[in-house]
């Protein structure tokens, strides 16, 4: 696996930027470059929603974003689309509970990072048993980005996981911005996953830098 070391992965997950072209206020390439300049540590390509690119156009954008990540040693993860992740030799994939089973994905992508969205302690335990490298917990706060989410759950599950001996890396997701990220890290998450706060910012660089500052401060 490229980043098997749990401690290293926890560091890499600190400021986890997720986006696709429908999320961006400006050009996705520029948005990613600015976000990287601000200090993001991990990137997920999630091409979903109204106007999302498909087929060759999607592959082309993914490949361009991947190259930028590669130039800056930022892991490049693909949301859901396992075939695309394999084709591009991405660093990993992020899947949900309704996507292809983790066991199957692991077989298709040995040695890659696999993240799974989880909403209950049971799902977290199953994720660990089946070999997930990290779990995404949310929505922590209300979000307008994903309409089919489970109910907002605050930081309860993150706290619950951290009250056990389970050491799996955790990222919080949903409605996170520089003003509330501290709460997510304080509850025990290793990182924050963000779409809107960075992708719709006038300055993705500035917002990424603010988020990085908060996370580093609270991770001490
Ligand atoms: N999964 C749970 S909430 C969410 C996803 C993909 C959307 C997060 O987006 P935002 O804009 O950071 O609230
Ligand atoms: Mg999914």
Automatic annotation (TrEMBL):
Question: Record's superkingdom?
Answer: Bacteria
GO CC terms:
cytoplasm
Q: What does the record give as EC number?
A: 2.5.1.3
Task: Please give the catalytic activity noted in the UniProt record.
Answer: 4-methyl-5-(2-phosphooxyethyl)-thiazole + 4-amino-2-methyl-5-(diphosphooxymethyl)pyrimidine + H(+) = thiamine phosphate + diphosphate; 2-(2-carboxy-4-methylthiazol-5-yl)ethyl phosphate + 4-amino-2-methyl-5-(diphosphooxymethyl)pyrimidine + 2 H(+) = thiamine phosphate + CO2 + diphosphate; 2-[(2R,5Z)-2-carboxy-4-methylthiazol-5(2H)-ylidene]ethyl phosphate + 4-amino-2-methyl-5-(diphosphooxymethyl)pyrimidine + 2 H(+) = thiamine phosphate + CO2 + diphosphate
**Binding, 2-[(2R,5Z)-2-carboxy-4-methylthiazol-5(2H)-ylidene]ethyl phosphate:** 143-145, 175, 195-196
**Keyword tags:** Magnesium, Metal-binding, Thiamine biosynthesis, Transferase
What is the enzyme's class at the highest EC level?
Answer: transferase
Q: What cofactor(s) does the depicted protein rely on? A: Mg(2+)
Q: What pathway does the annotation place this protein in?
A: Cofactor biosynthesis; thiamine diphosphate biosynthesis; thiamine phosphate from 4-amino-2-methyl-5-diphosphomethylpyrimidine and 4-methyl-5-(2-phosphoethyl)-thiazole: step 1/1
How cofactor binds (record note)?
Binds 1 Mg(2+) ion per subunit.
Thiamine phosphate synthase/TenI domain boundaries: 15-198
Transferase keyword on record: yes
Q: Which InterPro entries match?
A: Aldolase_TIM, ThiamineP_synth_sf, ThiamineP_synth_TenI, TMP_synthase
Gene3D superfamilies referenced in this protein's UniProt entry, alphabetically: Aldolase class I
Recall the GO molecular function terms of this protein's record. magnesium ion binding; thiamine-phosphate diphosphorylase activity
What's a Pfam family this protein contains?
TMP-TENI
> For binding Mg(2+), which residues are annotated in this chain's numbering?
80, 99
The Gene Ontology biological process annotation of the record reads:
thiamine biosynthetic process; thiamine diphosphate biosynthetic process
Q: Which residues bind 4-amino-2-methyl-5-(diphosphooxymethyl)pyrimidine?
A: 44-48, 79, 117, 146
Q: Which family does it belong to?
A: Belongs to the thiamine-phosphate synthase family.
* Function text: Condenses 4-methyl-5-(beta-hydroxyethyl)thiazole monophosphate (THZ-P) and 2-methyl-4-amino-5-hydroxymethyl pyrimidine pyrophosphate (HMP-PP) to form thiamine monophosphate (TMP).
Give the protein name, as stated in the record.
Answer: Thiamine-phosphate synthase
Source organism: Pseudobacillus wudalianchiensis
Underlying gene: thiE
């Amino acid at each position: 696996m490229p980043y098997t070391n749990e401690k290293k992965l926890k560091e890499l997950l600190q400021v986890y930027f997720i986006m696709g072209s429908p999320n961006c206020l400006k050009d996705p390439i520029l948005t990613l470059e600015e976000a990287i300049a601000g200090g993001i540590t991990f990137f997920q390509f999630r091409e979903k929603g109204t106007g999302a690119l498909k087929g060759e156009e999607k592959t082309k954008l993914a490949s361009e974003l991947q190259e930028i990540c590669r130039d800056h040693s930022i892991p490049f993860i693909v949301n859901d689309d396992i075939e695309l992740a394999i084709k591009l030799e991405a660093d990993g994939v992020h899947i949900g509970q309704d996507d292809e089973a983790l066991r199957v994905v692991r077989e298709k992508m040995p040695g890659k990072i696999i993240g799974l969205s989880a909403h209950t302690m049971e799902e977290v335990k199953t994720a660990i048993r089946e070999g997930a490298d990290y779990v995404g917990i949310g929505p922590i706060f209300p979000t307008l980005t994903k309409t089919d989410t489970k109910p907002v759950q605050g930081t309860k599950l993150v706290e619950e996981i951290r009250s056990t001996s389970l050491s799996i890396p955790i990222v919080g997701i949903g409605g996170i911005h520089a003003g509330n990220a501290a709460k997510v890290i304080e509850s025990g998450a290793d990182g924050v996953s963000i779409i809107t706060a960075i992708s719709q910012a006038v300055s993705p660089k500035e917002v990424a830098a603010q988020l990085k500052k908060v996370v580093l401060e609270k991770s001490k």
